[in-house]
Every structure is written in C-alpha cells, then in structure tokens.
Amino acid sequence: MSSNIKMIHFLQHELAVSSAEMNVLLHHPEQAHAPLHIILWQYGLITIEQLTQVFDWLEAQA
After folding, report:
1. What is the pLDDT of residue 31?
2. How does DSSP assign 10-59, residue by residue?
3. What distance in Å separates the CA atoms of residue 24 and residue 18, rounded to the nearest whole number?
4. 29 or 30, which is more confident?
5. Looking at residue 10, what is its pLDDT?
6. Which residue, of 5, 26, 45, 51, is most buried by count of CB atoms within 10 Å of its CB?
7. Residues ≥6 apart with Cβ < 8 Å to 53
8. Which among 22-26, 27-31, 33-37, 53-57 has the top mean pLDDT?
9. By C-alpha distance, which of 56, 24, 58, 60 is closest to 39?
10. Alpha-carbon torsion (29, 44, 21, 40), positive or negative
C-alpha cells in the first residue's frame, strides 16, 4: 500500500475525515505544494491535537 493511501486511510479511519472532505482536498490546488494533513489543519478540518496524532503516526511509519 502506498504511503499516500496509508495516510488517507489513517485520516479517514482514525481522525474521521470524511470522504467528501478528502475528495475536495485531493483536487485542491494547494495539495501539490503541501501535505494533506497540513491543508486539513489550515482549513480547520482537524484540530491541532489531531495534527499531532498525524505527526506521531508519520514518525511511527518511518
């Protein structure tokens, strides 16, 4: 499974980011320049605590 798919799975299943939100973000022009989790946080779709969870998850994946 690619890292992007793993990230999307984590965001949807662990942080309850909806499929509709993910679809909008995946087609957002900023997506090419910033990671999905940062865009989610910038637009208020995840909290700072959830962003910290993402960073912890990313560290565990390394």
Report:
1. 66
2. HHHHHS---HHHHHHHHTSGGGGTS-HHHHHHHTTSS-HHHHHHHHHHHH
3. 10
4. 29
5. 94
6. 45
7. 14, 15
8. 53-57
9. 24
10. positive
Q: Hey, what are 3's tokens?
A: 């890292």
For the segment 32-50, what is each residue's pLDDT rounded down to a tens digit?
Answer: 778 888 988 988 889 999 9
CA distances from 23 to 5, 9, 26, 28, 49 (A): 13, 13, 5, 9, 23
Angle at which helices 3-14 and 48-61 cross, to 10°: 140
Tokens of 62: 């390394």
Instruction: Answer whether 0.85 is exceeded by the pTM.
Output: no
